[in-house]
C-alpha cells in the first residue's frame, strides 16, 4: 500500500480520477445508509466511466459504486482499464468490499494487447477519503491476494 502517487498512473490521470469520483459521489442514492460512494474508472484508451452506490428498499438488492461503474463500462464494450478510483464519506480511505474486489479482479487480468506477466493484476485502486485530500493506492492483487479468476476455469 502506497499513498497517493504511483508509477502506475500519471499525476494528470490521478487528478482526473479525483475530479470524476467527486462528481459521481453526488449522484449516490443511499437513503438507507446515508453513505455516499463515488467511483471512476479510467479505460485503457482514456475513457472515463463513473458510478455511485444505488440502494434499494429491499436492502440486499443495492449495488456498490464500483460495480455500477464497471458494469457501465463493460456493457458498453470497455474491458481493459488503467485505474479505478473510489471515494466514500469516511475520513479514512475506505477500501472496496469483498464482492467489489472480486468484480474488479475479473477485469484486471491481461489486457487484450498486454501480455506482460508483470502487469497482470496490477490494476491500481485509488481510495480517497471524504475530502479527497488523502488517498491510498493498492493494486487489486494486494487487495485480493491469491484470487480466483477466469484463468482458473481453464475454458
Ligand atoms: O466500497 C464501497 C463500500 C460501500 N459501498 C456502499 C454500499 C452501501 O450502499 C453503502 C454502505 O455500505 O456504501 C460502496 O458503494 N462501495
Ligand atoms: Zn462493494
From TrEMBL:
The keyword Metal-binding applies. PROSITE patterns: CYT_DCMP_DEAMINASES_1 (PS00903), CYT_DCMP_DEAMINASES_2 (PS51747). It catalyses: 2'-deoxycytidine + H2O + H(+) = 2'-deoxyuridine + NH4(+); cytidine + H2O + H(+) = uridine + NH4(+). InterPro entries: APOBEC/CMP_deaminase_Zn-bd, CMP_dCMP_dom, Cyt/Deoxycyt_deaminase, Cyt_deam_tetra, Cytidine_deaminase-like. One of its GO terms (cellular component) is cytosol. Zn(2+) binds at residues 64, 97, 100. Pfam families: dCMP_cyt_deam_1. Residues 12-151 form the CMP/dCMP-type deaminase domain. PANTHER family: CYTIDINE DEAMINASE. The active site is at 66 (proton donor). Keywords: Hydrolase, Metal-binding, Zinc. Its EC number is 3.5.4.5. It comes from the Eukaryota. GO terms for molecular function: cytidine deaminase activity; identical protein binding; zinc ion binding. Coiled coil: none annotated. This enzyme scavenges exogenous and endogenous cytidine and 2'-deoxycytidine for UMP synthesis. The keyword Metal-binding applies. NCBIfam families: cyt_deam_tetra, PRK05578.1. GO terms for biological process: nucleobase-containing small molecule metabolic process; pyrimidine-containing compound metabolic process. SUPFAM superfamilies: Cytidine deaminase-like. This is Cytidine deaminase. Its cofactor is Zn(2+). Substrate binds at residues 53-59. It is an enzyme of class 3 (hydrolase).
Amino acid at each position: 500500500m502506497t499513498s497517493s502517487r504511483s508509477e502506475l498512473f500519471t499525476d494528470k490521470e490521478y487528478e482526473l480520477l479525483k475530479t470524476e469520483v467527486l462528481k459521481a459521489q453526488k449522484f449516490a442514492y443511499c437513503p438507507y445508509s446515508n453513505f455516499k460512494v463515488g467511483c471512476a474508472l479510467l479505460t485503457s484508451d482514456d475513457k472515463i466511466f463513473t458510478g455511485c452506490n444505488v440502494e434499494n428498499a429491499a436492502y440486499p438488492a443495492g449495488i456498490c459504486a464500483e460495480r455500477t461503474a464497471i458494469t457501465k463500462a463493460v456493457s458498453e464494450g470497455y474491458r481493459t482499464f488503467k485505474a479505478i478510483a473510489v471515494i466514500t464519506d469516511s475520513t479514512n480511505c475506505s477500501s472496496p468490499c469483498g464482492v467489489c474486489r472480486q468484480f474488479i479482479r475479473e477485469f484486471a487480468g491481461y489486457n487484450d494487447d498486454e501480455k506482460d506477466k508483470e502487469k497482470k493484476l496490477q490494476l491500481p485502486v485509488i481510495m480517497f477519503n471524504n475530502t479527497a485530500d488523502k488517498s491510498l493506492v493498492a493494486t487489486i492483487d494486494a487487495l485480493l491476494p491469491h484470487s480466483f479468476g477466469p484463468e482458473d476455469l481453464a475454458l
